[in-house]
Amino acid sequence: MEKIIIELDRTDLASRALAVPVREKIASYIKANTNIVLDLGKVMSVSASYADELFGILTKNLGVQAVIEHLKIINVSEPVLESIAEAMQVRSTEHCQQAA
């Protein structure tokens, strides 16, 4: 299976507008059954809106299982990981409701 590495080179991730193209790129790889390694080594902070737009909406649209199976996040700080996990958790319930 193919693997793509994406490195986000901003130190502070904020704004839904910045997250949309990254989400769309990752979603296209997941739909193509490609694994993605997302390197957040340079990221020091992520806003709730960015985390929701990228990780939350990705989870809502594709489901938490697909995201977890295809997306590996590396070099991530604990606070950034917590923001990502929270966004995914909130939106995963919406995906479950859509599927029902």
Give an overview of the whole structure.
This protein has one domain: 2-Layer Sandwich (Transcription Regulator spoIIAA). The chain has helices spanning 16-31, 48-62, 64-70, 78-99, and strands spanning 3-7, 12-13, 35-39, 45-46, 71-74. The model has no long low-confidence stretch (mean pLDDT 93). The chain is globular, with a radius of gyration of 13 Å. The strands form two sheets. It has a three-stranded parallel beta sheet with strand order 1-3-5. Strands 2-4 form a two-stranded parallel ribbon. With 100 residues, it is an alpha/beta fold.
What is the end-to-end distance? 31 Å
The profile of the biggest β sheet is: 3 strands, parallel
CATH architecture: 2-Layer Sandwich
Name the helicity range.
Answer: 55-70%
Q: Going across the major beta sheet, what is the strand order?
A: 1-3-5
What's the helix and strand layout?
Blueprint: E1 3-7, E2 12-13, H1 16-31, E3 35-39, E4 45-46, H2 48-62, H3 64-70, E5 71-74, H4 78-99
Parallel strand pairs: 1-3, 2-4, 3-5
Helix pairs in contact: 1-2, 2-3, 2-4
